[in-house]
Amino acid sequence: MTPDVQMRPATPADRAACYRVCLQTSDNGADGTHLHDDPDLLGHIYVGPYLEFEPSFSFVLEDAAGVCGYCLGTPDSTRFYRRFEREWLPAIQRAVPKPAGQPAGWTLTQQLQNVIHHPAPLMHFPPEFGAWPAHGHIDLLPRVQGRGWGRRLMELQMERLRDAGATGMHLCVAPGNSRAQAFYRRLGFFELDAGTDQPPDTLFLGRTL
User: Which CATH superfamily is domain 5-166 in?
Assistant: First the structure.
């Protein structure tokens, strides 16, 4: 019997569908479409460069209705961020305007525009994270949540990262996303301390591979 959901390597043709999944899970796991004036900005940051630079660590879930989840990662965060800044962002920056006005009044879209033009805080890899050089993230639409697919994707990702030589993996999650935190902790992730570089809106988790 053919399963109703299949896990497979991502391809360049999955980009638009993965961008939609990113958007539809962006509000602490809920659909954040209504929060964004430009539906592609999140995908430009959190999806596109992984599909481009790390195809061996990019996986999707697909059912009869299409792509419904993904797991993306890299075994070498330093190398990935270098390519992200030098090879991925320039074309995006030319297409995306810089935000105008005072930062205190920026919309979420303008905040993301600023991230694209000033990505340094996004490319956050504290020296303390040397034991966890890989990083990744996963998003699933509600229709495939709670069925074990998230665990399967993460286990596959961690296996591939380990085979590539990564000694550990870190990820970040919003402090308010308690469901995601519980999911990662069940997989053996624990809280990491980024010291004085810890962003106020980010919780870092990690585990050995």
Answer: Gcn5-related N-acetyltransferase (GNAT) (3.40.630.30)
